[in-house]
Amino acid sequence: MTESELRDLLVELGASLFARGYSVGSAGNISVRLQDGYLMTPTNSSLGRLKADRISKLDLEWNHVGGDKPSKEVFMHRAVLTARPEAGAVVHLHSTYATAIGCLAGPEDTAPIPPLTPYFVMRVGRTLPVIRYYRPGDAAMENDIHEAAKEARAMLLANHGPVVSGKTLVDAVYAAEELEESARLALMLRGQPARELTPEQVDDLLRTFG
Ligand SMILES: O=C(CO)COP(=O)(O)O
Ligand SMILES: [Zn+2]
């Protein structure tokens, strides 16, 4: 896709996430890898009202070279995109149910959402690391996120929200949606004898679709 097409898609998907309540206010941010750098949602912008020509552009060294001032979470996005060369985009949200799980689970928990459904396993994977709490925009989070992203497509920031990557922008958005709905299911079924997918079923999904 051209940069112009990706800018338009970012506006469309941001509005769609916002309209369905996956982000509120100016929460959340999205980045997309380009051949000559990165697109990033501007700081303090609402995902519901992005403007294609105001989206921030960063060069390959992550210097701001165009559009409005980028998200304060540039370090978070850089941590994931440098750890996962196959990732084309990163979506960070404060979506309610995934954030709730991030308030219950701690960094020792590597799978705070059980494998209840195939699409969670296919889009998010086997592990979902929990990163200890950092203040939003704190550059100190970069190393923890970078290390976690080497092994996992998505993670939860404790008491903050999910960070999800995908091969393409559409893949990253789909994975963020699937993560949120899986978190909702997990909380809905908490304390009930829900049947989880077996390790063999998880292996089969990852072999077939991973
Ligand atoms: O989600 C956010 C902080 O974690 C929003 O920050 P920005 O508005 O700087 O992107
Ligand atoms: Zn945030």
From TrEMBL:
Domain Class II aldolase/adducin N-terminal, residue spans: 8-187
* Name recorded for this polypeptide: 3-oxo-tetronate 4-phosphate decarboxylase
What this protein catalyses is: 3-dehydro-4-O-phospho-L-erythronate + H(+) = dihydroxyacetone phosphate + CO2; 3-dehydro-4-O-phospho-D-erythronate + H(+) = dihydroxyacetone phosphate + CO2
Return the EC number: 4.1.1.104
Q: What does this protein do?
A: Catalyzes the decarboxylation of 3-oxo-tetronate 4-phosphate to dihydroxyacetone phosphate (DHAP) and CO(2).
Q: Which cofactor does it need?
A: Zn(2+)
Q: Which residues cross the membrane?
A: none
Gene Ontology MF terms in the entry: lyase activity
Tell me the protein family, please.
Belongs to the aldolase class II family. AraD/FucA subfamily.
Native species of this protein?
Pararoseomonas baculiformis
The keyword Metal-binding is assigned to this record: yes
Q: Does the keyword Lyase apply?
A: yes
The EC category is lyase
Q: Which UniProt keywords apply?
A: Carbohydrate metabolism, Lyase, Metal-binding, Zinc
